[in-house]
Design goal:
The protein has one helix and four strands. It has a four-stranded antiparallel sheet. It has one domain. The longest helix is centred in the last third of the chain and has 13 residues. 18% of the residues lie in helices and 24% in strands. By secondary structure, it is α+β, with helices and mostly antiparallel strands.
Amino acid sequence: MVDRRIRGDGLNWRKSSVSGEGQENGEDCVEVAATGRSVLVRDSHAPRAGTLELGSAEWRRFLARILDGDLSSR
């Protein structure tokens, strides 16, 4: 589910250290924050555009697909 309400105040948003700061070349980058029962995912370039909320099982499946290369756009 994508939540377009402004969320994130008080959450510990994190992004990969390999994403760097500034992303001058336009590379994709997301941030994640744990809420206790779910994980929120948002675009680091447009944090107020909305969040994707994943339950713990969905989050594990999402990470597994990333690690397997299933979501690679390249």
